[in-house]
Amino acid sequence: MSGTDLSHRTDVGGLFRAHYPWLCARLRRHLGASSSVEDIAAETFAQLLESPGLTPIREPRALLTTIAHRLIYQLWRRRDLERQHLDQLQHFDQPQASSPEELLQLTQTLHGLDRTLQRLPGKVRATFLLSRIDGLTYPQIAAELGISQRSVSVYMTRSQTLCAQHSANEPLHQRSA
Description:
RNA_pol_sigma_r2; Arc Repressor Mutant, subunit A; disordered C terminus; 80% helix; RNA_pol_sigma70_r4_t2; RNA_pol_sigma70_r2; globular; mainly alpha
């Protein structure tokens, strides 16, 4: 580990100790007493830790708020997608409608895919979600995230590879259940 890496980790650790309770309180205003508050606060600091620590952070609360808001939006997008999918399933005729067991299995699959996507770095995951959930084009994603279109293409390939691996492993999980 280089001195810069250790310094960055130390800086993020100090920010965590100084601002974690504040961030949780701020998130509670948006999410209520949700169990997601602490998860989003922790993921905020994890993303900060993953980012290169080349420049000092002048306004840590503003940065933490921005990262946390992006995570909240991602959470809401996932919930909306899940809700839309379940709504679509309810509109099928009774013979085609899924049983409660099938709905549970589908929900578990979606949660498994979400856990798989959580393994991706923030910008890679955001690229995938902006493409698949929001339907943005590569140039729109590049502008939204402040990255090149080439990076968008590389990130999409990386996320699609991980999703393909998840899909290949999914039947194994279902058989063992």
